[in-house]
Write a structure and sequence with these properties.
Layout lengths: L6 H10 L76 E3 L3 E3 L11 E6 L14 H13 L9 E8 L11 E2 H9 L6 E5 L1 H8 L5 H4 L3 E3 L8 E5 L2 H6 L4 H18 L2
Parallel strand pairs: 3-4, 3-6, 6-8
Antiparallel strand pairs: 1-4, 1-5, 2-4, 7-8
Length: 264
C-alpha cells in the first residue's frame, strides 16, 4: 500500500487543515519534529511522519457516501459476561459488531484494517451512519488520506462505549472482553487502530493516559504475531484539539508502516 497522495488526496488533507511536504524521487521523507514525547516505540519499524498544520478543521459541507455492507455474523453462542476482568473499569465496556467501510463486491474480507473507536450510541441505543457528522467526516478524511478507500485492503469499524445503566441496548451490543476476539479473529486484521482511551487501554492492557499509549505498536496475541495495534486520538477529540493533529497523523503513518511490513 502506497502513501503517495494524488491531487485529490492532497486537497482532502488541506481540507483537514493538513499541510503535506512530499519527498522528491530517491529522497527520504521529510520529518518535522514535534514536541518532545515521553513515548518510546516498542517496535523496530520506522515511523514516517508528515507534518500537519495545527489550525481549526473546517468540515466539508456534506458527508461522503458510505456503501452499505452486511454486518459480520455474531458468534453463535456468547459466554456469560465475566464478573471481573482484572482491569479497572473494563468489565462495563461494550462493543458492537464490525461494520465494513468502503464496501465493494468481491473485496477481500481478511487481512486489512480494524478500526476500534470510542463511540457511544444515541439516546435510543443505536448508532448512526459510521462516517456521519463532523467526527465521522474527519475519520473518513483520515482513512482516505491513507488511501484505504481504494479497495487495496478491507477496512472494518467497531464502536466501543461504556455501558449506561437503564439506557437502551442495541441488538448487537456485547461485552468487549467476550466478543472482541470472537468478532476480530475471522477478520484477521493486520492492523488494529484504537481511536480513543477506552479502546486503547483495553486492547493494550494498560491504564496510562492515551498520550502515553500512542506513538508505539503493540501486539494482540489472540490475533496472531502479524497483527499490531496502534493507539491514536479519536476524530472528535481532534476537532477540539487541533494541536494534536500532527501526532495523530504520525500514528496513522506508523500503523501504515506496520501494515505494509506484514501484509500478505
Amino acid at each position: 500500500m502506497s502513501l503517495v497522495l494524488d491531487a485529490r488526496q492532497r486537497a482532502m488533507l488541506e481540507e483537514m487543515g493538513v499541510k503535506v511536504w512530499l519527498p522528491t524521487a530517491r529522497q527520504a521523507p521529510v520529518v518535522v519534529p514535534d514536541e518532545p514525547q515521553a513515548d518510546v516505540p516498542v517496535d523496530d519499524a520506522s515511523v514516517p511522519v508528515a507534518a500537519l498544520a495545527a489550525r481549526p478543521i473546517a468540515p466539508p459541507p456534506s458527508p461522503p457516501p458510505v456503501a452499505a455492507s452486511p454486518r459480520p455474523v455474531a458468534p453463535a453462542a456468547r459466554p456469560a459476561q465475566p464478573a471481573s476482568t482484572g482491569a479497572a473499569g473494563a468489565s462495563d465496556l461494550r462493543i458492537g459488531a464490525p461494520q465494513a467501510l468502503y464496501a465493494d463486491e468481491g473485496r477481500a474480507v481478511t487481512g486489512g484494517w480494524l478500526v476500534v473507536a470510542d463511540m457511544p450510541p444515541g439516546a435510543d441505543g443505536r448508532h448512526g451512519a459510521p462516517l456521519a457528522g463532523d467526527a465521522g467526516r474527519l475519520l473518513d478524511q483520515m482513512l482516505r488520506a491513507l488511501q484505504l478507500h481504494t479497495g487495496t485492503a478491507p477496512v472494518h469499524l467497531v464502536r466501543a462505549h461504556r455501558a449506561v445503566a437503564g439506557a437502551p441496548v442495541a441488538e448487537d451490543d456485547a461485552d468487549f472482553e467476550v466478543a472482541f476476539d470472537a468478532w476480530a479473529v475471522p477478520l484477521a486484521p493486520r492492523i488494529v487502530l484504537a481511536m480513543g482511551p477506552l479502546s486503547a487501554q483495553r486492547l493494550l492492557g494498560r491504564q496510562e493516559p492515551l498520550g502515553r499509549l500512542r506513538g508505539q505498536a503493540g501486539r494482540l496475541p489472540a490475533l496472531g504475531p502479524a497483527t499490531h495495534v496502534v493507539a491514536t486520538y479519536h476524530p472528535a477529540y481532534l476537532l477540539r484539539n487541533g494541536a494534536d493533529k500532527a501526532r495523530a497523523w504520525a500514528d496513522l503513518c506508523l500503523a501504515a508502516a506496520h501494515f505494509e511490513r506484514h501484509a500478505g
